[in-house]
Design brief:
Keywords: Metal-binding. Pfam families: Glyoxalase. This is Oxidoreductase. GO terms for molecular function: metal ion binding; methylmalonyl-CoA epimerase activity. It comes from Streptomyces yokosukanensis. This protein is an alpha/beta fold and about 300 residues long. It has two domains: about 5-120, Roll (2,3-Dihydroxybiphenyl 1,2-Dioxygenase, domain 1); about 140-300, 2,3-Dihydroxybiphenyl 1,2-Dioxygenase, domain 1, CATH 3.10.180.10. Helices cover about 20% and strands about 35% of the residues. It contains six helices and 17 strands. The protein has helices at about 20-25, 75-85, 150-165, 210-225, 280, 290-300, and strands at about 5-15, 35, 40-45, 55-60, 65-70, 95-100, 105-110, 115-120, 140-150, 165-175, 175-185, 190-195, 200-210, 230-235, 240-245, 255, 270-275. The strands form two sheets. A nine-stranded mixed beta sheet has the order 14-15-16-13-9-12-11-10-17. Strands 2-3-4-1-5-8-7-6 form an eight-stranded mixed beta sheet, with helices on one face. The longest helix has 14 residues, at about 210-225. The two termini are about 30 Å apart.
């Protein structure tokens, strides 16, 4: 799609068997704010974000990614995108209409090439939010989401063709081929990452903190809580952002980050980095080494929700 209609990442919705434990984690040590809850569904906001919520949790028998939600500027843009997807043979789950979720808005849902549910919406009411203060180590906003795909080139091309994403950088190596594509819909280096994996699943969900001090304080709080650190703290080369990855109670990976690179889209040319260079993974050299067992854990479980629309 030549015209970019998406503006930003709104929220990521997860379904989990142990709903209470997951809710305690995100509304507790992770630092999100519980804004609404009803009959096994909870909506959690980031205090610094105008979005109504950045994570939705749903009680379910199977662990799955329910959906990834992106914003559009106007209802007309929502309609234009829906028409484009229909004309291109993309399977729509719903047609553009008023949304029943907190903040309302106008949007629709569809399946991406791997079977994930994606939602696009406009005119969602702005949530009352606030400035995050110095040393306050709670998420300011949702930063980005990374998904696993068995064919990252196909998935990248689909997002470029249908949703107007642009490639910012790629990581790979001669013996593996490409293993990560970083995709953008704004000057932010990436709001979507596509990682090579044996199956489609969620790789990680990332939350922006106020600054380096808040990032380290948040990392320390998670460590003291007994949450399992997967990887970090460190600083990536692609995106130049910091990272501390933790596993949530159901084995999904969540990240604290800050200082994501803002690039000049008119002059930017994608890099092709090799992960054989240690500075690509971690410029600081402070994180634990990425190894094959850890990489397999980051592939997560097979997503049980592919090409199955969430019930709500």
């Amino acid at each position: 799609m030549s015209t970019r209609l998406l503006t930003h990442l709104r929220h990521v919705d997860l379904a989990v068997p142990d709903y209470a434990k997951q809710l305690d984690f995100y509304a507790g040590v992770w630092g999100l704010t519980r804004v609404s809850e009803d009959d096994g569904i909870a909506f959690l906001a980031a205090e610094g974000s105008p979005e109504q919520y950045v994570i939705r949790l749903r009680q379910a028998d199977d662990k799955r990614l329910d959906l990834i939600s992106y914003g559009a500027a106007t209802p007309a843009d929502v309609d234009t995108l829906a028409e484009h997807l229909l004309a291109s043979g993309v399977q729509l789950i719903t047609r553009p209409d008023t949304l029943p979720t907190p903040g309302g808005g106008y949007g629709f849902r569809f399946f991406d090439v791997d079977g994930r549910t994606v939602e696009v919406s406009s005119d969602v009411a702005v949530r009352a939010h606030r400035r995050i203060e110095e040393r306050e180590s709670v998420p300011v906003r949702l930063s980005h989401v990374v998904v696993n795909s068995p064919d990252i080139t196909r998935t990248r091309r689909w997002y470029e063709q249908h949703l107007g994403f642009a490639l910012s950088d790629t990581i790979g190596a001669p013996h593996t081929g490409d293993v990560m594509n970083f995709m953008r819909i704004s000057s932010q280096h990436h709001s979507l990452g596509i990682a090579a994996g044996p199956h489609a699943s969620i790789h990680h969900v990332s939350f922006e903190l106020r600054g380096l001090d808040e990032f380290m304080r948040g990392t320390g709080r998670l460590l003291r809580s007994g949450a399992r650190l997967a990887w970090g703290p460190g600083r990536h080369l692609a995106g130049d952002n910091t990272f501390s990855y933790f596993f949530d109670p159901h084995g999904n990976t969540v990240e604290y980050t800050t200082e994501m690179e803002e690039l000049d889209e008119d002059t930017w040319h994608p890099h092709h980095y090799t992960f054989l260079d240690e500075e690509v993974s971690d410029q600081w050299g402070t994180a634990n080494a990425m190894n094959e067992p850890l990489a397999k854990e980051l592939h997560n479980d097979v997503d049980r929700g592919l090409f199955i629309a969430p019930p709500v």
